[in-house]
Design brief:
The complex is a heterodimer of chains A (about 120) and B (about 230). Chain A has about 120 residues and is mainly alpha-helical. Chain A has five helices and no strands. With about 230 residues, chain B is mainly α. Classes of the chains: A mainly alpha (about 120), B mainly alpha (about 230). Chain B: It is a multi-pass membrane protein.
Chain lengths: ~120, ~230
């Protein structure tokens, strides 16, 4: 429970930074940045949070299931005429992202390997 | 308490969501190809439709479940920390690859959405599709998109990346474990990464690292849009 309360405290801190300082990032993302920072600085020990974090990450699907169930009302927001364009954009953009991520990583690794030896 | 009042309380929505998810996990033990998210969502939607209950009434309880996305996002710091220590020699290449992949995802989605003439709410819902669901739905909120639509698009992106990602990268001679991990983790978040673990543990670790880095990189890359968009 210590772990869970630490995570909730960071969530709260993220929310406070978002609303207090007007940072236009979601509060949970600010909480994640602060939390990751504290882990790397060693201010938070991995053992304190590991179990609670593993549970929450493993069941992430449960926590956003209510949004996916919102697919039952999507036709209120999306015109049928938009649907083909939307899906095409999704597929193409995903493939571009895969190639850009994999491509640059490969390039950099090859260069590093050449320099190493 | 009459029926109407009962519907306005959160208990049944929470119970229904958790029960549907638990049932979906049980079913996966028998039929591993049944994705628990589809089964769980399908059960909830069917029960709501059968009972003639509106999505808005369901959300009274659903919102309590959604609240947990906050601490669950923060919890992603743990895989980020663990895997970046494990992969510290590759960290530079991974970080650069994730940034390129996220930028390509957002940029191409924006261009294609404009080209397809999508409305601005729908386009904003598409932009964060490659980052993990907890973050993508929050970003949809800050960008003026529709979180429900983003949730569906995020899941579709994850499935697409998990089915075709490794294949595409191998075909393009980018099939090293590191490149597949970065590509799929960045473009197809947790759903893509879950599939990598079946192929190789190491690919899975790279994927998990890429996915958690992108939870920070993607929101930062989207930040300028906050001022650009009306």
């Amino acid at each position: 429970m210590i772990g869970f309360s630490i995570l909730l405290a960071f969530q709260m801190a993220g929310m406070a930074v978002q609303t207090g300082l007007g940072v236009p990032l979601p509060g949970n993302v600010i909480g994640l940045i602060l939390f990751a920072g504290c882990l790397f600085l060693g201010w938070i020990k991995l053992e304190w949070v590991e179990q609670s974090a593993a549970f929450l990450v493993r069941h992430m699907m449960l926590f956003f299931l209510p949004y996916v169930a919102g697919s039952m009302i999507l036709l209120r927001y999306v015109e049928l005429s938009e649907l083909a364009g939307l899906l095409l954009a999704l597929v193409a953009s995903t493939l571009v992202s895969l190639l850009a991520g994999g491509g640059l990583t490969t390039l950099l690794r090859k260069r590093e390997e050449r320099e190493d030896g | 308490m009459d029926n109407g009042e009962w519907l306005q309380r959160p208990e049944w929505g929470v119970a229904l969501t958790v029960a549907a998810y638990a049932a979906a996990l049980l079913l996966r033990r028998r039929l591993p190809w049944m994705h628990p998210l589809f089964v769980g969502t399908g059960l909830v939607v069917l029960i709501l439709l059968a009972g003639g209950v509106s999505y808005e009434d369901y959300r009274i309880g659903g919102d309590l479940v959604l609240f947990m996305l906050g601490p669950a996002t923060v919890a992603l710091g743990v895989p980020l920390y663990k895997h970046s220590r494990q992969l510290r020699h590759q960290l530079g290449a991974v970080l650069a690859g994730v940034t390129a992949g996220s930028l390509a995802s957002i940029g191409s989605a924006w261009l294609l959405a404009a080209g397809a003439g999508l409305s601005s709410a729908v386009a904003s819902s598409l932009l964060p599709k490659s980052v993990t669901s907890a973050v993508s739905v929050s970003l949809a909120g800050t960008l003026g998109g529709i979180p429900e639509l983003t949730a569906v698009l995020t899941v579709l992106t994850g499935l697409l990346g998990s089915m075709f990602g490794p294949l595409l990268l191998r075909r393009c001679r980018l099939g090293s474990d590191l490149a597949i991990g970065v590509g799929v983790g960045t473009a197809a978040h947790g759903i893509g990464t879950a599939r990598l673990v079946n192929d190789s543990q190491w690919q899975g670790s790279v994927g998990a690292l890429a996915m958690s880095i992108s939870c920070i990189v993607t929101p930062l890359l989207l930040l300028p849009l906050h001022w650009l968009l009306p």
